[in-house]
Design brief:
Blueprint: H1 2-29, H2 34-59, H3 63-100
Helix pairs in contact: 1-2, 1-3, 2-3
Length: 102
């Protein structure tokens, strides 16, 4: 069980880094719009919520029981967050391709 929590924490940490890197890249290229800011802000809020729930599960009096109760829900929410981030990346890639066309 603690391995599962540690694995989920590692996944959340990696995703936070990917989100941050994408935001910095957009800012450096000067294409970070208000729409991007709103979308990234939403991703970060969802990430923070998942991280808080994971921290609560890890610190529970009976972490094994608490984790078992929320594991599937956290995995589902994590996958949803990854999907949303993927949509942002796809959208940005499409925009970049369109901008390169003559």
């Amino acid at each position: 069980m603690s391995d599962e929590i540690a694995d989920m924490q590692a996944k959340l940490d990696a995703l936070a880094l990917r989100i941050e890197q994408r935001e910095q890249d957009l800012r450096q290229r000067g294409v970070f719009s208000d729409a991007h800011a709103a979308f990234v802000s939403g991703l970060k809020a969802q990430h923070a919520h998942l991280a808080d729930r994971l921290k609560t599960a890890a610190g529970a009096h009976e972490p094994r029981l608490h984790w078992r109760g929320i594991r599937d829900e956290l995995v589902r929410d994590y996958n949803s967050l990854v999907d949303e981030f993927g949509r942002l990346v796809d959208h940005l890639d499409t925009q970049a391709m369109k901008a390169r066309r003559p």
